[in-house]
């Protein structure tokens, strides 16, 4: 027989109002093996709390202490109990003892504790303990069976058995946490089966109780925390309360932290942790959550040996996470990794396993995402097959069935968009409607599933369906928006879908009320503060273009384009690699041009200039920002300036060096790559924080922000205008910037169109392709010297049958584009007696399709009235205005170090895998010989005599470089564009990371060094722009292949002209400031040796000058 204190009650005895939150009753002074005990307090009313359980009063214990704690952990009251008075020979049943609690000084309210003393036989205690253990074991067997059978009755029976076991288990029993964990796991499984919210609430409640009573080091604590995290994740997925997923991550991180690496449960815990981070990313759109998810999941895969029961689930979560990141970054390696991981997860999951439908669903989703990107029909066919199998394996009434149906509907819809089979869209609509019917009204997924129904009807309406389809779409999508709370990340896409539906109805009805609805919804999506930047950018672009088309005079159009262009920088942020940024920018190519054309039509040429500068050459501008001199900031905050400089260098390296996943990589190699990505992301966040700190300093509010028009007009070259030419579908305009003029000069060009620019570009490309003008020395553009050599430039006769394509392109550019600009600027023909230093200059900044056309060579080269740009100005190009003004400013404020000033030359005639270009040898030797005669600081290294590292070292040691070699342009990742040497390749990323603060001139005597990329026409993804970004102030490059012999002649004449007034024995340095004039005259010299035939034009036109 034993005496026990039981039925503890805490009551308030004061008359004060207000609430008091009490949570625990602690009892101290009980000797081992029982020891101190903790009881959870259940709130009965605002003034009463109760605790279940009992405390034995063993002989020899004369006193015990009790403490009551609040929910914040503070001691609310305490009491000292005399056990000798409590222990009586014959306790009276129902008799209660009570005692006032001591309240700490200043504490309120007054509290009293009461209890009763009961007698329990030792046989009864042992009997209850044995029965509870048996019930628990029986519950475990049935729970494990339910995982195989997926039987709802088995799950419910296990809950009943666990519940009876817990009732017989006293507070403080060492097995109570474990038993609470068991019943919590069964409640979770029943929720997954039925979707009843009461089950998941009960699971979280009992698991939190288990967590509270389990002491540190308890064997069940990791499992309790894992189940608590899993149940909180499930409730978040159902209800959408962000606090649930935050609590889930906290619990799972604790579980992982206290679980040994050798524990077989750790891979599953890491899998759950990764899933929780992934789900939070869906709400937060914070890339750090995705990075943490992938890190945890890759660790889980690494720790799980083949055959581990949790491996398929971890692989499934890993694949789903890669897919989610792909949707944000559009990195193809991510979606390939997702498909690979999910395929393996499905293969490792036994037929009949409860998780197989879920894994088939995820696998199909990854195939769908890849199909939408690549368009391989085998992917969508396999995806649909996987989902049909998942639906078949999911029992009727199962909570996951609507999810499988939703995925199947989406895949059918995607195939319909590609193939147009009416049976696919009909089945998609039926499937989505069935998913909605099976979803509880207040379920968190209800808006998304309704959205799918609306999109399916909208797709059918857009492909020839009736007005009834459109009405059904609008009705469904309106309900979706109504059900979606503010701040939900999917609200943007749902608003956009509804706007699209109204726009479709406007196209049919012509009713401007529908147009206004469309504009309103696009605007709401674009200006939302939540959700991913890609979705907001898409909405902003639609908003702006819609206003531009139907409300061109609306003042709101300026707000729309402002919003869109602000979002471009977020879409292609520094947290991504350079290649990733360019991939993102492909989708918004031309946006800045559309914006500029609208601004010009509204006589806001200042805004047009700002938008063109903000929305073009974004990656080079980011690199320029990372290299911004910090002298002024250093005077204000030296520590901040140093932090910015250090972080910028790390970011620059991270953006250009990160590798991609490759087939056959080990999990360790993949983890290493992900660690690099996480570091990159952390640096990007640190950079944003540093910029915020800098902008908080008075006078630095606009630090590294897009420049206003007034700032762009500062530091312009004084020797000629800068002319930006913007062409879009609606119009063509030039914007001229002149030193000393405080406003841009607007020059409308009504006779030139985007259609014409594209025609000219296609015609030129066809000619270059047909003549194989893509590598140095390729094709045949060599024109033999004729009898007219030395007698001036002779126009070519008009051929029978009309004008050839090259002459036609150059004539059109001259008549409708360049000559009107020169006329407005008042630039006359060059007087033949003018000195080279007084020749007028123009810096051309073409955009879009014009970036691929030789504006510097525009002219009429046949007939008696021949004239061209070369008769009026010396031409240079600049990727954008800032690239030019920065170099103009540097030329005045940052002189080149006298010790570095000089010329380094190298020729590489026989690079492995490339055509021999023997002319490079004579080219470099002749230039070197002439420089040496003049006493210049010059170095020549030929062929294999120079390694890649040595070449780089010499580029740092000499202000100017002449590279006579093959070059290779990588449009997908411009920093991997490279110069081909005998001993290896020198890529642009390596050059940019070098210390080239004294760089002056780069003469790139190679092929296509200024050729752009069609999908990124506004990003100047060529070597010439890259060398400017690396620090060179001026660059000579080529638009296409150059003839080996003529390249040698141009180089010789170029340097002869550059050094024309140089005397032997004078300063040994090298000055490239007159390089544009030198190239101009070198080309004129070449033209004197050839005629103006098409072949002759193709010989000299490719040579171009970039920079100051």
Automatic annotation (TrEMBL):
Residues 809-1107 form the CHAT domain. PANTHER family: FUNGAL LIPASE-LIKE DOMAIN-CONTAINING PROTEIN, KINESIN LIGHT CHAIN. Pfam families: CHAT. This is CHAT domain-containing protein. InterPro entries: CHAT_dom, TPR-like_helical_dom_sf. It comes from Ephemerocybe angulata.
